[in-house]
Amino acid sequence: MKYQKPKGTRDIFGRELQRTEAVCSTARLFFEQNGFEEIRTPTFEFAQLFDRSIGERTDIIEHEMYKFEINKKLYALRPEGTASVLRAFIENKLSLPARFFYIWSMYRREKPQKGRYREFLQIGIEILGEDKPFYDAEIIDQGKRFLNLIGAKDFTIEINSIGCPKCRAIYKNKLRDYLEPNFSNLCSNCQRRFERNFLRIFDCKNKTCQQIYTKAPKITDNLCAECLEHYLSVKKFLNKFGIDYTENRKLVRGLDYYTRTVVEFKQQSLGAQDTILAGGRYDLLMKELGGSDAPSTGWAMGVDRLLISMPENLPKIDEKKRFFIATIGERFINEMIELRDLIQQNNFICLMGNPEDSIKHQLKKANRAKADYSIIYGEDEAKNKVCTVKNMEIGDQKKIPIKDFKTFLRNTIK
Ligand code: ATP
Ligand code: MG
């Protein structure tokens, strides 16, 4: 029997894992510096939480969620982060305003393709309990600065406003009037979508549909006075932050909970799956989930997709030197442990050979472990209070007095 991983999942190791970790550790530092607090919630929740927040008629809920029933209770692996953050916020009676970030794997049963997996990693931020346009601009600025920090280039920022239930209700009738004569030409998906989740039609990839939508009235031109003022103010702050953006009046999001500002960061080089960061404002969700009236805003970034678009080397990856200690004879085990601790305290990687193996065997292991340096310690070294340091790349070796070893580590090894 040969075992294989489930479709749409990946094994991540070596360089790819280092790159992923470099992005995550930089995110931890950066978002903490910006006043966000890290949060972790369970990987699975009661399925209803997601049905309720994402919307029962969205692609995620209709086709993409991993659901399972145990003892008549229906659970789901989380397909996104915001619902869980809000559930945790309400359940733990935390106080407003609040700023959270998370780094979590998400699960969606989508058709796997480049940049689209069934398990994928997101970094997300949420600002809860702030309704002012400044915060819409702030989260966009946070996204941009973080991407700059890790060396991402050539991404574009698209924004739109999708209004509130009040302006949307009026707008829907207007859109219906426009679409009526063309309704039979729309793809069946759009016909269905219009009844269920009408803004989503703009997301359709079908050429005929897109031609029809190009001339359709847009929600952004039909905002109520409050939503319009909010949107103008978001743009004012984006300009003050010095952020280049384009307005995409067809930008709508796949989740039901968004109101007003929506945003996507796109990376053209990615082809079809080009969105690396997406989010927006969700003013009604906290209340919808049983919490207080807390207008909020946030986004999530697809780390896997981001890494595909990044240059091979992220500037932040710290290539640590690797040591391998080959001790000749188990009587030197204490010295071996002392050397190992010293090396590791100086932030290098250190492995140990089995002192009962021959030196030849241990050095072979050092090679296989891709050590940069081997430290040899045996009878001669003990007598002369030195250790032999072998540079595994060029093959030369020198003896370093034990008392100078620390200085040697600090000054010679970079
Ligand atoms: P898309 O239109 O690309 O499916 P979405 O609207 O479903 O995106 P969100 O739910 O807003 O995406 O998730 C935010 C980000 O998470 C996306 O912009 C993308 O970078 C990433 N993402 C979403 N789904 C996947 C997936 N299946 N595999 C990898 N990354 C994903
Ligand atoms: Mg999707």
Describe the fold and architecture:
The structure is a single chain. The chain is α+β, with helices and mostly antiparallel strands and 414 residues long. The protein folds into 2 domains: 14-164 and 224-309, BirA Bifunctional Protein, domain 2, CATH 3.30.930; 322-411, Anticodon-binding domain (Rossmann fold). It contains 15 helices and 16 strands. The strands form 3 sheets. Strands 1-5-6-11-10-9-7-8 form an 8-stranded mixed beta sheet. Strands 13-12-14-15-16 form a 5-stranded mixed beta sheet, sandwiched between helices. Helix 12 (333-345) links the parallel strand 12 (322-327) and strand 13 (349-352). Residues 80, 108, 110, 115-117, 120, 122, 254, 273, 275-278, 300, 302, 304-305 line the site of adenosine-5'-triphosphate (ATP).
